[in-house]
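Record 1 of the preview.
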Amino acid sequence: MQDLRLREADIAIRHARPEHSDLIGKKIGETTAHLYAAKHYLDRVGRPEQPIDLVDYDFIGFETAERLLDLYNGFGIPLTRENFKVYSASGPVIVSLLKSGLGIGIATKDIEHQESELEMVLPELPAIEVPVWLVTHRELRTSPRIQLVFEVIATYLTERP
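->
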């Protein structure tokens, strides 16, 4: 969300409700996320058959391991901080790290259609519900041009299959 606060962008699609008072958002839907890894990474380390098999795999963290440990442990994947070799708060960076074969990480399901070199890991695990928010800076909401673009994007994203 910092890119909006620093005015590096006017509108952003995020997977979290805006928490800063200078940002406003509209929840436009939900998607799901799953575990993914590069096919060449899985070719090298093996494809797990059950959650416990992942105990020795490398993982890519979103921000910090603490946010994910409860989630993974709830899936029967007994990870510790040591499993997380690299972190990022950026979705595109996480996808690049996944494609580079640096480990397993969480990505939204649309990645399957965009990145053929990635493979879902343990597809039988429950999907992770992920909200989709359209976010803008509070001051820009008074701009007719930004309002129009915001509503066009919101309509497009809520009407697509």
